[in-house]
Amino acid sequence: MFFKTKKLTHKHVCFSLLIALLLQLILPCSVAAGTITIPKGDQTIAEAELFVYNSMIHSLNESLRITNIRSINDFAGNKFTLIETSPSGYFIFHNASGIFVEYSDSGTSPYLEASSSAQLIYGGPTFYYIIENGSYVHTMLNETISLSRTSEYAKACNSRVKELMDSKDKNISTFISSHDSAVVDSTIATRYERNSAGYTYVPNGYQFFAEDNANTFGYVDGGYCGYIAANMILRYWDDQGELTLASNYTSSSGLAAARLTNYLIAIGEDDLGFSGGTVPWQIADVLDAFCSQYRITADYGYSLLATGIKSEIDSGFPVILFGQLAPAPSSSVSMHAVTVYGYYEDSSGFVYEIAHFGWNSNTAHTYVYGNYGGSTWFDPTV
Fold first, then answer.
1. Domain membership of residue 145 as a residue range
2. What is the mean pLDDT of residues 58-85?
3. What value does the mean pLDDT take over residues 116-132?
4. Which string of b and e fits 181-217 if b means at least 16 CB within 10 Å?
């Protein structure tokens, strides 16, 4: 089974604007009339909760507006709230702990296509299901789980919720229950630091891979995933100031991003005689040839069986991972290459690599499942 416990979120952002938003949002919470669907049942959306949702949302992007709020449970029945925003974005809030466990201001809600009557099930990042025809049906992948496995998944969910409660945001939960603005103080500014609660990223890695380049990563059709990953590695280091790429490779447009991928493909196929389906040492050779042409000083190499990825991330270096891979929780693996830029380490010490799969924004921050074959590393800081 691929479900594991995770402590917090796949995006952690400061609430540094919360105090400024207090006066603006507390009444009437800056939500346009008629745009919110209030969930039925035992959950009410109180003014204080709306304030917390809006404060979080506007601390990321002041142009976002709430369009939908829905109740959502995990496999054990623990309550969460799904907040969907326009023109993009979604936020998942754990009610009891006062913690946003997952959010994106640019991604699409994984439950956007679910009908208003659907029973939503949330098992943590990438585990998005609805109950349909006697099964848990993943909202994005062609995958189902039998209802008979509920207790198995519920145990993992309860373990995860315990971790959330151990990290309970007392200021937020107290504010929601009492609506006492005195508890909202400067400590909020440090509440959602990215590299906390078991998550580790290369410097500025989350911002670069999952936000700024979630959709402009240089995709080229035809099985060129190794070259796409090499593109992302080079552009990351250009963004970090460790090398300088030609301006026609670094534009934020998808066309410019693909131009670099196509140039790398030309090096691999025309100059080095490689096919589209590359392996770690071939992409290392492509990076070597590219750096030689542009007089970039760097070290590069490869490892078999993907050893050393965690240490590379700890040292600040994203890595290209090759193998029979899939974004968890899918078990439908295929030969692929992804860009690993972080990892999550749970309380037992198990490490989950976090990668951009090179497909779209929904796979820009994804846990990796599969059989690892090898990796390519690149270091321009020498």
1. 18-195
2. 89
3. 90
4. eebbeeebeebbebeebbbbbbebbbebbbbbbbbbb
